[in-house]
Backbone:
């Protein structure tokens, strides 16, 4: 039956016969099918992304058309969907990111420097390494429970209970292991010849690290930490547990910074969560609009990281 | 130049002040690193304390109830564990073919230029926050995919949440296993082509087996992430208040993480009581489940590193 579909002329010489055998004279449809299936898998994954973004954009369109964008970005939360905005949520998220940046980045980099530059390969080091990688895999919601026990309950006098301080510290702990892992990878990529050059001229360990290792690893460390902040921006579950749904900064206008930080708070992803549970159609639109703002911010943060990486990327 | 000009060991050690500074800096770095252990211990202790309070506050039979309804004192563990597993299995059914297919294509078929474009787009998918995917599951996946397949009109289902979790972990599977395949030395591929194998045979019989440790690790990490995923489930699976035991993906259900958010945001007045303590009990179970999965995947990653 195959003779009709692929007419193969009889080989004239031995050379031609060998050539034909190597080139293959039938179309390998199974290989083609396999390649198409792989491509399809990739295209489905990418197609979902396009689908998601266009769908949410279309849902959000009425909000952006009927209302002023600035008004939506600055208005406080409200049960009236025509007035509700994400002003407090944006502020909350920005303050939380400041907490993450101040707490997790320096401690994370310091821990990575210890693990990569100082620690000898002993039991304690291996334990710390395993613990860090394990912490990176613990679901974020479990960190929320740690936040409740430590910051909301145990340190209540200092954090004010369900406050943005508790939220900020909890979020910083969520991202700390990821900061450590990405920073350690960048440090590991610095060739040891750079270090030896420093030691050769009599520098101490810290001097070598400060003047040689960290400058070379910095682009990688920065990229990693900025990506981490992008991830923290969308993190919701731990904040729900430490009380971010309690509303905006509902304190008196003349309240001190401490009072503000110890008061109730909210954040962009938690507002998205609570709006998404509202059955009214207007809130669907608001949710979609808030999601567009969240995705835009996360993409901007990631774009900064990628630009930094491409600008300072170095080949050894 | 006399013999006294020789550099002595004392001089090489540097001044006392300089050495003291080194020691202080070293200890500061050590404390930062040791914080990881402190955090782990703090997690276990804070979970353990309230877990004990919880277990003392209920009858152990309550854990065997066929429903999870904290308000009426039913803490049927089977309900939330099976819900979690149903969602994780659906997620893996979605993510395994998509993630591995994308990984093999990117590593073995795509031209370098196509790869340079496609990989970053896949990384964008990885940055989409889970709360967004939850909204997508509820408003798009549920009406467009799940309701026609299930033949019902329930907005909240385990299936829609499970598919969304699958989309969430697909980039994870793709990127870890692609790294593993890309790291397979070129001479293995060349040997295979030299024997006359096609690209398909080379991919499936040479590259995939050589990278199998990394591929398995990617699947375990994805499964662990699926078990711990919270926001998608809280929005789309529909376990508000409580749930009755069910493993039918076409019905709403409750997972361990979903149950935690319901109690935590406590719109119904359960805050503070035994129900609140159940949070920590679920958290402890979740902590150990994901820890075991992470240790297993770690084992596979180490095997991969040893390979070449």
Residues:
């Amino acid at each position: 039956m195959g003779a009709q579909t692929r007419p193969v002329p009889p080989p004239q010489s031995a050379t031609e016969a060998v050539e034909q055998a190597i080139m293959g004279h039938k179309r390998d449809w199974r290989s083609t099918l396999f390649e198409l299936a792989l491509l399809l898998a990739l295209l489905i994954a990418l197609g979902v992304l396009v689908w998601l973004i266009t769908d949410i954009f279309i849902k959000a369109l009425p909000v952006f058309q009927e209302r002023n964008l600035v008004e939506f970005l600055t208005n406080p939360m409200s049960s009236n969907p025509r007035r509700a905005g994400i002003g407090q949520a944006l502020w909350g998220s920005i303050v939380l990111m400041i907490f993450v940046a101040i707490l997790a980045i320096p401690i994370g980099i310091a821990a990575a420097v210890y693990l990569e530059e100082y620690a000898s390969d002993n039991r304690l080091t291996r334990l710390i390494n395993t613990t860090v990688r394990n912490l990176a895999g613990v679901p974020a919601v479990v960190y929320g429970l740690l936040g409740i026990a430590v910051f909301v309950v145990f340190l209540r006098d200092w954090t004010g209970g369900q406050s943005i301080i508790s939220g900020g510290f909890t979020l910083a702990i969520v991202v700390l292991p990821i900061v450590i892992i990405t920073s350690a990878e960048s440090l590991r990529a610095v060739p040891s010849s750079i270090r030896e050059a420093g030691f050769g001229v009599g520098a101490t360990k810290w001097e070598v690290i400060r003047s040689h290792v960290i400058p070379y690893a910095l682009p990688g460390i920065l990229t990693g930490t900025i990506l981490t902040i992008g991830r923290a921006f969308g993190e919701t579950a731990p904040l729900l547990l430490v009380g971010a749904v309690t509303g905006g900064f509902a304190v008196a206008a003349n309240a001190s910074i401490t009072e503000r930080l110890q008061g109730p708070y909210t954040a962009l992803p938690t507002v998205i969560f609570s709006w998404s549970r509202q059955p009214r159609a207007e809130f669907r639109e608001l949710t979609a609009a808030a999601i567009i703002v969240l995705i835009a911010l996360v993409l901007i943060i990631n774009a900064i990281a990628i630009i930094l990486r491409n600008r300072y990327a170095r080949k050894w | 130049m006399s013999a006294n000009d020789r550099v002595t060991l004392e001089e090489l050690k540097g001044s006392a002040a300089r050495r003291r500074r080194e020691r202080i800096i070293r200890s500061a770095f050590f404390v930062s690193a040791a914080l990881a252990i402190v955090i782990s211990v703090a997690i276990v202790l804070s979970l353990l304390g309230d877990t004990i309070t919880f277990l003392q506050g209920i009858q152990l039979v309550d854990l065997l109830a066929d429903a999870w309804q904290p308000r009426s004192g039913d803490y049927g563990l089977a309900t939330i564990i099976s819900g979690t597993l149903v969602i994780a299995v659906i997620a893996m059914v979605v993510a395994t073919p998509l993630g591995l297919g994308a990984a093999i294509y990117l590593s073995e078929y795509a031209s370098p230029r196509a790869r340079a474009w496609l990989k970053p787009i896949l990384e964008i998918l990885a940055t989409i926050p889970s709360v967004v995917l939850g909204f997508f599951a509820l408003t798009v996946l549920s009406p467009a995919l799940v309701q026609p397949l299930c033949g019902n009109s329930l907005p909240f289902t385990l299936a829609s949440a499970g598919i969304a979790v699958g989309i969430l972990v697909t980039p994870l599977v793709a990127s870890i296993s692609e790294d593993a395949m890309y790291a397979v030395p070129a001479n293995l591929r060349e040997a295979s082509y030299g024997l006359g194998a096609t690209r398909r045979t080379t991919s499936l019989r040479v590259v995939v087996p050589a990278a199998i440790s990394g591929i398995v690790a990617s699947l375990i990490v994805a499964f662990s992430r699926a078990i711990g995923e919270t926001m998608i489930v809280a929005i789309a699976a529909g376990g508000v208040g409580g749930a009755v035991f069910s493993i039918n993906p076409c019905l709403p259900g409750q997972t361990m993480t979903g149950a935690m958010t319901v109690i935590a945001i406590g719109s119904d007045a359960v805050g503070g009581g035994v129900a609140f303590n159940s949070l920590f009990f679920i958290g402890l179970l979740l902590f150990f489940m994901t820890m075991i999965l992470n240790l297993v995947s770690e084992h596979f990653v180490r095997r991969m590193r040893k390979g070449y």
